[in-house]
Amino acid sequence: MSKFNRRTFLQLTGSAVGAATLGAGQVAAQESESRFFINLRDVDRSAIPDDIEIIHDLSQADVLVARGDQSSVDGTTVSDITIDLSDDTTGAVASRDGPSAAGGSASHNHDGAPSNTEYQWDKRVQDLTNDLTDKPGGGKSVHDTTTGEGTRIAVVDSGVDDSHPDLADVVNDDLSENVSEDSYDWRPNGAGDHGTHVAGIIAATNSNDAPGGGVLGTAPDTEIVSYRMFSGETGKQGDGYAAWVKAAEAGCDAINYSVGIPAPYVYPDQFPVLLEELRIAEQIAAYVRSQGTVIVNSAGNDGLDMSPETTLSLPTEAEGVFGVSATGPIGYGWGGKHSDNEAKWLTGNRLEEPTTQPAFYTNYGSPVDVSAAGGNADLEAFNDGVEGAANDLVYSTVQGGYGWKAGTSMAAPQVSGAVALVRSLRPDASVEEVETLIQETASMPESGETYHGAGHLDLEALVAAAK
Question: Catalytic positions (predicted)?
Fold first, then answer.
């Protein structure tokens, strides 16, 4: 296997995984030509010209999302951000399709095709259930304590495919909403399967009765509310923030926001408007938290140190947003180390890198609250199509089937699912109490707080402390 550090990654991204896949939403971003935020803490609403269209009234947070002549508004305004997905690898630095939902699992040349759940190293390493472990009969599992019943998680993303057998009856149709400006519903509309992959990480039910079975989410008894903010390949940050407010007012326990603004739009010396963008994000986050909703955000995939004051990665660095970095193994079920025996893929000295290894792409630094499984990759092997090299990515639901993706976008929903587990045990726990429990029960890998914040998500310790 080949070793890749962050410097190598940054040299390779243009040819190896495509520059368009970088960042937390992993996209290009630019200021909208006609849409903008009005900060009502600096602007008298009565003075806003009549020809300014209000797209989203977020006055609960003293914010309006507007369209029109921005210069005609007297006071603090800042352009909305257009996010261009460019392709259907939304939020992932690497993706690979797996089997269809109707068929068996991916091809395998040893002791038969593994079931779909055997690719879920992210769940197996957490001892989510004894049906999904390398230690059968090894004692109480996370799901023996809670499966997230009675909770609700918002997925603000590209839409969720609720026709998938592992997501059937998971999505609340009545509360789900299209917050973009197109005329369709909250299901995917040309922006790929990112939201469906995220939803499966949180809440897949392993209900598929096809030969390969299904996959299992962290909290299979939680309820998903889908807010689609992407129309085709583009979305607006203002639509995402509108979904935050809607989710909070719908009683969601957490918002999973695997979207962000990538480099180079992270340097306030080059883009001074970022400071006003920060104010908007923090005002909305404060309101959302006041309603009891945790905001979980992917830290971003630029390999960026977010600690210096010269960087500002939004919305991760906004006060009130819980930032998640990504980790993943190298060598899960491939590379010659017992790759013929799925029961041994995680046990013993069989991984080139452990599941807690900081992923080659992840942002890091002081804004990270915890790390979680987002997937890793040996890029040379992955791009050369080496059999099994995709196993180090996170395996979850996609439209019509299953697939692998890696990104901090995959790490955030691990934490969103964890919020559901906590709130199912402590429904009256405050946002601060939930976040503190997740951080205090996290385990600290050798790579330390620079990459992991308070530590790496530990579901067993978390539910033990919460019950």
Answer: 157 (charge relay system), 194 (charge relay system), 409 (charge relay system)
